[in-house]
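Our platform keeps sequence and structure together, in a single record for each protein. Such a record has a labelled line for the sequence and another for the backbone structure tokens. Nothing more is needed to write down the fold, since each code stands for a local backbone conformation. For reference, a complete record is included directly beneath this paragraph:
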Amino acid sequence: MNETTPRTGCADQVGFFFLFGFGAVFAAVGIISLLVGLDGGDGLAVVLVVGGVFSVVGLGIMIAALRMRGTMARRHALVAAEPERPWLWRPDWASGEIVSSQGGLALVLWIFALFWNAISWTVAPLALADSEADPVVWIVILFPLIGLLLLGLAIGSSLRARRFGRNVLILETRPGVIGGELVGRIVSARPVEIESDLSLRLACLNVVTTSNGKNSSTTEHLLWESNRTIGPEAVVQNAAGGSEIPVRFVIPWGQRASDPNRGNNRIVWRVEARADLVGADYDHRFEVPVFVTEDSDRTLTEAAPQAIDLAEAERRGSPGPRSRIGLRRLADGAIELDFPAGRNPAVVAVLGVMALIWAGVCFALSKSDAPIIFPIVFSLFEALILLGFFHLLFAAALIHVRRDGIGYEKRVLGMVRRGWHARPEIRDLAVDVGAQSGNRAYHRLRLELVDGRRITLGDGIPDRDEARALEATIREILGLGDDQPVRG
């Protein structure tokens, strides 16, 4: 039922020897640097710092490779025992107890942050000492600043791990069923005390790793997602002094199954739990098995989106508990939707940092002897980044939905554009993905007119279920048919 082929032992052995050899080379460079540094000479501090970092990182990679080899041996035994049930190929999936990936993320962040800072804070002062000779070298100050950002991320991740302890998702459905449900509970070693709401998300992702020579990059493409919000009353304190968070999602037929192999193009299902708290936020992720089984119901399709409870939304002032979109009821069943500027601050911050770094690169190229085409091309990319940054930071929209049509007012940096489309002009309303940041898709509401034009009413909606609920509400007010498929 699941077209999954086990990864061969030969491929795993190649991966082990490559990783172990890479770590050995790193460690050898570090140890040789330390031995050279102990003989004294100029630049002793630099040699000792670089040698120490390379030695520690290399030994860490070698230890990780040895642990990976043991994991691979256990995995091959599971594959041989259950060739037709791939959800039993991973020990955590087989046991139904999946540890949050955030603990491992903290360790990775600390290793990377220490390595980056050790190199950048050692090299930057030496480069800046010659800044009078070449002002371009001032660009190296960006690297220690990036190091401080990485250090902040590592500290934040450690604070979350310390505050909530070990978090495990215990599955009742093993696996989650396509055309069925994924049910379980998250058990936190320490109390999770939320005052408002906790967001749960189940996402199906296509994780693609591409290589170009020595460089590789990994991209996550969102294929499907479902979001839920639970209140404080749903989080139960257990006898061990921790908390338990219920998890339940319906998975419609037609989705793609998990890929237990660690390839360059795989399907990953992930449960995410997040709550904004004073101090360290609660933020944990779990990779879960989702497959077609004998319990799959091929007739189970995704439920049609339900219109928003306008009375509750007006009391709250927004369509959903965590929504940054404003909602107000008007006379005769009309509503006003307010898409404020800067409604996705995390994305704005990331794009702002990218713009600063790219601006530094453009400045360095302009002062260098590089051909003129390079600073021109890089400056064009900088212009595109700044355009996106200013749009996310300053673009706002006010939408009026009435029975006789839709009016909108869009504002960017004092510029205003207004429009009105009567009901006979409107053919359909659609939800699709307007942009994606990491594995988070940002949806938009698009009006389709009889003359073929498409008008974006509002964008930057991170919750697909909220976007679909807004679509259903607007359809209900306008009297649009609900037989059109929802895209995205």
Residues 346-392 form one domain. The chain is about 40% helix and 30% strand.
